[in-house]
Hints:
Layout: E1 11-14, H1 18-29, E2 34-38, E3 49-52, E4 55-58, E5 64-65, H2 69-77, E6 84-88, E7 91-95, E8 98-101, H3 105-110, H4 116-131, H5 143-151, H6 153-168, H7 177-189, E9 199-203, H8 208-220, E10 224-227, E11 229-237, E12 244-251, E13 256-261, E14 263-266, H9 270-276, H10 284-292, E15 295-305, E16 314-318, E17 325-328, E18 341-349, H11 360-374, E19 383-396, H12 402-405, E20 416-418, H13 431-453
Helix pairs in contact: 1-8, 1-13, 2-13, 4-7, 5-6, 5-7, 9-10
Bound molecules: flavin-adenine dinucleotide.
Amino acid sequence: xxxxxxxxLPVCIIGAGLTGLTAAWRLVGAGYRVVLLExxxxxxxxxxxxxxxxxxxxxxxxxxxxxxxxFLDLCREMDLEDQINWYQTRDAIYADGQLYxxxxxxxxxxxxxxxxxxxxxxxxxxxxxGRLKNWRDLESQTAADWLRRHGGDQSYQKLWQxxxxxxxxxxxxxxxxxxxxxxxxxxxxxxxxxxxxSSLGYMNGGFSRLIQALxxxxxxxxxxxxxxxxxxxxxxxxxxxxxRYQITCIRDDCxxxxxxxxxxxxxxSGRQFASxxxxxxxxxxxxxxxxxxxxxxxxxxxxxxxxxxSPYYWTTICDDLPFVVxxxxxxxxxxxxxxxxxxxxxxxxxxxxxxxxxxxxxIYRLFTEALGRVYPDFSIHHVTGWRLCRTRYAxxxxxxxxxxxxxxxxxxxxxxxxxxxAQIYPEDRGMNYAIRLGREAADTVSGWLASQEK
Length: 454
Ligand SMILES: Cc1cc2nc3c(=O)[nH]c(=O)nc-3n(C[C@H](O)[C@H](O)[C@H](O)COP(=O)(O)OP(=O)(O)OC[C@H]3O[C@@H](n4cnc5c(N)ncnc54)[C@H](O)[C@@H]3O)c2cc1C
């Protein structure tokens, strides 16, 4: 027990997504008091689930890779390690109005939309990238230039450009080569050998089990999770020895409440943090960086059907459709408990895009009309349910030289940590790295609190 004084101020964590929950668990486990503030009424953030048929399922598709060691460690800690099943899925690309299998190197060599030599060059690019150790060499290059130079112009136009657009929309040409290098590395490490399909993991009964287990453990250790509490400002009093932080929240009944804490971990976007931190006198240079972090939003439609659409788990859309990826979840986890096949259709976009503010019904109609172009077997009459999930801060835009422009987790105030997805680098966001970051933020805070006790 590090905090012998039961009156010691708690650590306030903003956000009960995987980062916030992991940080809270780490801190309560080390004997610290914790108050976790969550705007919504459920824990999990982007990994939040609902019940479909007789089983829990995520609003947004999720799987893990065999190299996700932090994720697997946490599952072990929660006694859930044996609940992960591994699957070798089949994937496809929809391009020029046709569906092509695209699960590994053999499919790449057969892909007819660019010349054979460029297919070989593309395969070698992916292989070499997986082995590259020094990502700093890639920092000054855009993914577009790097892929065009190594794979050829046509492979870029037919394959990589649509892929980058599918994630970064209008910012596709600005994305750093470090980002795509990471994707190659992740997929490569999830294959047993070069020609194999990658193995993807999913938890028996859904990832909500991990979220629930974390929530239970935090509460068993007297950690407080306050749902329906949206943090709106952070202030600090450094006048009397140890700093005290005041976090003001708006509750879901519109009343306000202020939490006093000995340290703060904010697991939110840079922009939200910058506006929340305005009462603090943090240096302008840091706040400018936090404000400048850009994010794509995501629309994710989940549909239940009474038939399967294809043998593919993951279909990347390299064509002009309103969604950019179709994920047939029941090709990964074939549970019958959902009451049918489950398919996700997702689109990353800017919030300035008119699609973002369309009604759920309009988005459903647009997406399902286009779905029939990809899978001719699709019929709207087979749909037995659907939901749309909107995520405002879904993907930070990782541009060239990101290590210079990234607002560090350690803010200029040593008692305040910013631990959102934009603090994950050179890797890309993902559950595995949310867990790593949550642990790192908790350890840094506990180290700092312990140093103050001396
Ligand atoms: C479309 C999509 C697909 C994905 N697929 C995968 C995948 O297959 N595998 C994988 O590993 N990862 C995947 N991810 C990424 C993964 O979901 C995230 O990396 C991870 O969940 C991030 O967790 P987090 O806690 O950092 O953020 P979040 O989950 O965003 O949690 C932040 C929490 O803070 C709360 N909050 C925000 N503002 C406030 C406030 N002012 N006051 C109080 N609470 C606040 C939010 O409500 C939320 O609960 C995917 C993400 C998306 C968008």
